[in-house]
């Protein structure tokens, strides 16, 4: 199913690093032999492939007039490393053992070092510049690959000279250390909190599993009663279910003052000073690279075109959803019979939801046996995108429950995917899609895309199949959407195939798009079947399910917009603010967007690890951005019929097939005939009448 005519070391002098024999990680044909890979294979294979690819890089550095063949050589370097490291990282996530984890951890720095070396390679950068000058315009895909590579070199500081280059490196190292400390402080402050309670009535309303954990924690310390911690599940359980307002208030204060100068551990792990240092260093890094501010730098790798565009987008969405948030809040207040405080919102919202849309997870589970859901999902994808999905015996898997499926289009095999859907020990939690092989059509490297689809559903027991909650059904659709992006790609260069090279505020488009189908009555009828009687989900349950989807959506939306606007404005200033400036900005944003006024002691920025601990700085807006893309793309289907073949073919051709080979906005416009519009998201969230009035 996967044809490969090149493997690790192709195009390099393999005599320099003798090929270790009998190492399954170094086999160059077919899919990884998961059941043959042992921890002792890891380090020799990694060292071998890195040495061979270092030699390939050295050869590339020596070429004076780089051409398309030169570009293909570098693509093979990345593929060769992925071929060895990919299965190791995958096994470490799904079938970890102490020995494998040790081997993985020992090799991770070697792989990181190699990527850093390549990313900082001035000679390669200069050759890419030459290639950029000589590549003809009609080589569209190659030009995009060169453009992205040059951009990443520049963002890594490679184009800087002398002192600036050294300073940039120093700034990046300091930032990495400060961000790690920010996260650590937050973790320490969270772990330090405990609430000991001996009166059962004070804990009324809490779910049994929360109480059980609290009882065990108390017993461990030789205490009576319950010891509640501040881990996210306990915090959420208290805010949503605790009948005691005093307990909710206590938890609200502890949660919103973590790692700050206020609250139960005031000053012990204060992130306040780190915030201003981080902002100052980010601003400096942006200036060194020639950007006006950090927000501009962040947008260099995103679909959004400009700082003003993002701010305008967030403000527009806020202006139109705020009346709904106000209406939600009034409704909750009426239900509670009093004015609500910030620690009351989640509690009363949950009570009202129970009253209106009472549908427990357990009640729904019976209708979603996994085999039925999978069959319905596959047939949906087959109908939409003209493919066939067929189960095949896999030659080698890492667990007996893993299955392999082949994908064909017009009778021709175009790829395949592994499913690993059940929770078990030694497997990381959560759900994800990852590439096992990227599509390639290069000289000496031809392969079809292969994906991993990993979830953590409850395994079948006895005669009972795995039964999914509706939330898990949505998760499965989400990951399968990523999978289709990976599998239906028609791009020949691995670096731009599937989800590779897609702007990261657009990469969730196919996944969130496919989620929509998991709510449609016509699809729910095909993916459900009571596991003993086969009865599909009744209409009345489908209605309740959809009612709960948009319940209190106004409040949820303005909360996300408050975070997103605060993050983006904070990083788009001409000069980095001091701590007083940070809080003044937050106050302004709240006045503009929020409907719930937090108390004076609230220190939300000290807990905002998305943006101060790492990846989402000047990027938090991406959540809403991708939701708009997905809702608007799905609206095209609603206009023509959600199973309309012509619309689906256009989605496949313009979005899924092109991967990162074309800018995300161009791809979207080619599909939709216009730029994205926020109306579709507002409609999907049930926020339309006031918006139109
Ligand atoms: Zn996703």
Notes on the structure:
Among the domains are: 14-159, Glutathione S-transferase Yfyf (Class Pi), Chain A, domain 2; 193-256, no CATH class. The strands form 3 sheets. It has a 5-stranded mixed β-sheet, with helices on both faces. Strands 1-2 form a two-stranded antiparallel sheet. A hairpin with a 2-residue loop joins strand 7 (440-442) and strand 8 (445-447). The radius of gyration is 27 Å and the shape is globular. By secondary structure, it is of the alpha+beta class. It has 27 helices and 9 strands. Helix content is 55%, strand content 7%. Helix 1 (39-61) packs parallel to helix 3. Residues 1-18 have low confidence and may be disordered. The structure holds zinc ion. Zinc ion binds next to helix 16.
Précis, in short:
With 693 residues, this protein is of the alpha+beta class. It contains 27 helices and 9 strands. β7 and β8 form a beta hairpin.
Average of per-residue pLDDT values: 94
Give the CATH class of the domain at 14-159.
Mainly Alpha
Strands ordered across the widest β-sheet: 3-4-5-9-6
| Biggest sheet details | 5 strands, mixed
Q: What is the structural class?
A: alpha+beta
What's the total number of strands?
9
In which range does the helix fraction lie?
55-70%
* Portion in beta strands: 5-15%
**Any idea what the radius of gyration is?**
27 Å
Shape: globular
CATH H-level homologous superfamily name of the domain at 14-159 = Endopeptidase. Chain P, domain 1
Q: Could you tell me which ligands this complex binds, including any ions or cofactors?
A: zinc ion
The CATH architecture of the domain at 14-159: Up-down Bundle
């Amino acid at each position: 199913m996967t044809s490969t005519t090149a493997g690790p070391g192709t195009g390099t002098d393999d005599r320099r690093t003798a090929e270790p024999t009998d190492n399954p990680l170094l086999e160059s044909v077919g899919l990884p032999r998961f059941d043959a890979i042992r921890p002792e294979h890891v380090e020799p294979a990694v060292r071998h492939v890195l040495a061979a690819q270092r030699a390939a890089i050295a050869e590339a550095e020596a070429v004076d007039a780089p051409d398309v063949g030169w570009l293909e050589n570098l693509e093979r370097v990345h593929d060769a490393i992925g071929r060895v490291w990919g299965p190791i990282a995958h096994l470490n996530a799904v079938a970890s053992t102490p020995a494998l984890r040790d081997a993985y951890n020992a090799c991770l720095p070697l792989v990181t070092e190699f990527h850093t070396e390549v990313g900082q390679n001035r000679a390669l950068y200069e050759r890419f510049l030459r290639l950029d000058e000589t590549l003809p315009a009609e080589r569209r895909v190659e030009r995009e690959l060169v453009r992205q590579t040059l951009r990443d070199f520049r963002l890594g500081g490679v184009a800087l000279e002398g002192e600036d280059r050294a300073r940039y490196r120093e700034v990046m190292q300091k930032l990495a250390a400060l961000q790690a400390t920010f996260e650590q402080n937050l973790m320490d402050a969270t772990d330090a909190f405990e609430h000991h309670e001996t009166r059962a009535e004070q804990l009324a309303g809490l779910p049994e599993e929360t109480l059980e954990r609290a009882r065990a924690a108390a017993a461990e310390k030789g205490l009576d009663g319950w010891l509640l911690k501040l881990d996210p599940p306990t915090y959420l359980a208290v805010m949503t279910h605790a009948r005691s307002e005093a307990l909710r208030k206590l938890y609200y204060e502890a949660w919103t003052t973590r790692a700050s100068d206020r609250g139960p551990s005031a000053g012990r792990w204060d992130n306040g000073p780190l915030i201003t240092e981080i902002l100052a260093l980010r601003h400096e890094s942006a200036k060194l690279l020639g950007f006006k501010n950090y927000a501009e730098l962040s947008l260099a790798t995103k679909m959004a075109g400009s700082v003003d565009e993002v701010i305008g987008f967030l403000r527009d969405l806020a202006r139109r959803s705020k009346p709904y948030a106000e209406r939600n809040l009034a409704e909750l207040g009426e239900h509670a019979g009093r004015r609500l405080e910030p620690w009351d919102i989640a509690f009363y919202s949950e009570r009202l939801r129970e009253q209106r849309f009472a549908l427990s997870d357990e009640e729904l589970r019976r209708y979603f046996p996994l085999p039925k859901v999978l069959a319905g999902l596959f047939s949906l994808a087959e109908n939409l995108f003209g493919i066939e999905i067929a189960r095949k015996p896999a030659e080698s898997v890492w667990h007996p429950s893993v299955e392999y499926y082949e994908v064909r289009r017009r009778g021709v095999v175009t790829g395949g995917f592994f499913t690993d859907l059940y929770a078990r020990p030694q497997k990381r939690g959560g759900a994800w899609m990852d590439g096992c092989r990227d599509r390639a059509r290069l000289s000496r490297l031809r392969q079809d895309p292969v994906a991993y689809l990993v979830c953590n559903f409850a395994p079948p027991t006895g005669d009972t199949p795995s039964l999914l909650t509706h939330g898990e059904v949505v998760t499965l659709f989400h990951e399968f959407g990523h999978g289709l992006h990976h599998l239906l790609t028609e791009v020949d260069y691995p670096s731009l195939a599937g989800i590779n090279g897609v702007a990261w505020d657009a990469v969730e488009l196919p996944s969130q798009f496919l989620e929509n189908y998991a709510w449609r009555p016509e699809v729910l009828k095909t993916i459900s079947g009571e596991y003993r009687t086969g009865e599909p989900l009744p209409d009345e349950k489908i209605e309740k399910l959809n009612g709960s989807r948009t319940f209190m959506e106004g409040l949820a939306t303005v909360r996300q917009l408050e975070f997103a606007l605060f993050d983006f404005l904070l990083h788009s200033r001409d000069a980095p603010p001091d701590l007083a400036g940070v809080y003044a900005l937050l106050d302004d944003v709240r006045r503009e967007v929020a409907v719930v006024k937090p108390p004076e002691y609230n220190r939300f920025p000290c807990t905002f690890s998305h943006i101060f601990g790492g990846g989402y700085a000047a990027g938090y807006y991406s959540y809403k951005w991708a939701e708009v893309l997905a809702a608007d793309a799905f609206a095209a289907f609603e206009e023509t019929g959600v199973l309309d073949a012509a619309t689906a073919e256009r989605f496949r051709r313009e979005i899924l097939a092109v991967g990162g080979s074309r800018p995300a906005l161009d791809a979207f416009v080619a599909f939709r005939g216009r730029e994205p519009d926020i109306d579709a998201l507002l409609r999907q969230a049930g926020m339309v009448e006031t918006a139109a009035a």
